[in-house]
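Bit of a strange request maybe. I'm writing a small parser for structure token strings and I need a real example to test against, not something I typed by hand. Could someone generate the tokens for this chain?
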Amino acid sequence: MDMSGIDFAFSVPEGQSASATVLEACRRIWPRCVVRHAEEDVDRPIDDVALWENDVRVGEFFVYRSAADAENWHRNGSTLGNAAGMIHVMIDLNSVENDALPCIIEVHDPEDERIHEILNEIETGFAAPASN
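Reply from user aminoacidic:
Good idea to test on real output. This should exercise your parser:
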């Protein structure tokens, strides 16, 4: 069965940290979530200081609802049973269009209520003025 994801596109206003906005939204909805940068092989709890250092300017990462969800995804890939437990974040840090960075959020269960809440939090976060 094809379990490909669905992409949601956002524009990140200039001066705003796309990664931090996404991570804050995930932390509010999934307080025990874990994060894996695409170029690493380690899952970090959302409160790990290493995630928040250097303005978290990372171009691609995965956020899992919990450590158990991360393990399930690593072991099985996308399945009907775990589709609502992960979002894939891709931020083009090298491209600026109309003073905004493009950000794509891939989800595998767009009907899940908590996924909708995360997407709404992200949209609200990107609409808010950047704090200095």
